[in-house]
């Protein structure tokens, strides 16, 4: 089994779709740790803009390299106007996810914000997936329930601190936005639109939209040594590469199952926080890790992925 970017001539088709999504989610999970190295005055919108601009440029360049190998136009069953509309809607959803997620985490804290945003994603995706006539199976519901239970054990604040409900609403908005662009991307894939074209178009448009909203903002902090490394990691390792893996995996995995597997993201984020940022892992947190892994195994064994 080999895994690499298609432009190197090594195929990813031999790798199970759920595993590609899982690898992508693992890389997404590094974003929180990378943000810890950004200056404290950086706003959520600035973080999202830098992340998407770097990732969008890289993905756009990558598609230019892949252009001779993309799927023949005859295999696409959608009209160009509808494709453009769906890609634009997906790009707007990505922008909303980034801004809502960073805003929700900042308002209500990393634990609650991450739990609500990432945990609500599979629920919204499963419901929206009905529009694609994807069945909500009992195995999916069981796996999602196990993983959500694990996330509660891993991330929930047991200190009794008050919850900022505005932050919770932002986080729910992030979960809904994630569901929207996952289902729309899956719809485009099912109609023959090449995955590389989809993901690159999404991020080029999303980055352009965010840049327009940030005109006049000070981004000089990007060029400081620590911030530059963190920004490059966010754009390349936590955006471009994982979204490439995600779109490849989404071609053979239902939107609902992909969303459940993506719940590995906060697991990776929590483990990095423990190992790199010296945050403690409680007994309940360890039980949460075990539950998340069990849910992932259940999804991997599902014949209707």
TrEMBL record:
Its main location: membrane. It is found in: Membrane. It is a multi-pass membrane protein. The keyword Transmembrane applies. Keywords: Membrane, Transmembrane, Transmembrane helix. The chain crosses the membrane at residues 48-66, 82-104, 110-132, 139-159, 165-185, 197-215, 227-246, 253-275, 281-300. InterPro entries: AA-Vitamin_Transporters, EamA_dom, EmrE-like. Residues 17-155, 167-300 form the EamA domain. SUPFAM superfamilies: Multidrug resistance efflux transporter EmrE. GO terms for cellular component: membrane. Belongs to the EamA transporter family. This is Drug/metabolite transporter, DME family.
């Amino acid at each position: 089994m080999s895994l690499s970017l298609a432009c190197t001539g090594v195929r990813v088709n031999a790798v199970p779709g759920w595993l590609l999504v899982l690898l992508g989610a693992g890389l997404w999970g590094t974003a929180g740790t990378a943000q810890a190295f950004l200056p404290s005055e950086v706003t959520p919108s600035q973080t999202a803009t830098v992340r998407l601009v770097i990732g969008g440029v890289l993905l756009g360049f990558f598609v230019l390299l892949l252009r001779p190998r993309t799927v023949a136009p005859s295999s696409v069953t959608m009209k160009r106007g509808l494709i453009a509309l769906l890609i634009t809607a997906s790009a707007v959803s990505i922008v909303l996810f980034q801004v809502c997620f960073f805003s929700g985490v900042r308002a209500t804290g990393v634990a609650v914000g991450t739990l609500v945003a990432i945990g609500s994603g599979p629920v919204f995706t499963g419901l929206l997936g009905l529009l694609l006539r994807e069945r909500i199976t009992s195995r999916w519901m069981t796996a999602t329930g196990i993983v959500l239970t694990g996330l509660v054990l891993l991330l929930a604040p047991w200190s009794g601190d008050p919850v900022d409900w505005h932050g919770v609403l932002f986080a729910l908005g992030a979960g809904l936005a994630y569901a929207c662009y996952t289902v729309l991307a899956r719809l485009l894939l099912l109609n023959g639109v090449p995955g590389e074209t989809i993901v690159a178009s999404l991020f080029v448009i999303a980055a352009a939209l965010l840049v327009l909203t940030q005109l006049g903002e000070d981004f000089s902090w990007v060029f400081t040594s620590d911030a530059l490394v963190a920004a490059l990691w966010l754009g390349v390792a936590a955006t471009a590469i994982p979204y490439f893996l995600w779109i490849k995996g989404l071609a053979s995995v239902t939107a609902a199952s992909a969303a459940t597997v993506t719940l590995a993201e906060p697991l990776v984020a929590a483990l990095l926080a423990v190992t790199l940022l010296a945050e403690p892992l409680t007994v309940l947190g360890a039980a949460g890790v075990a539950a998340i892994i069990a849910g992932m195994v259940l999804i991997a064994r599902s014949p209707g992925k």
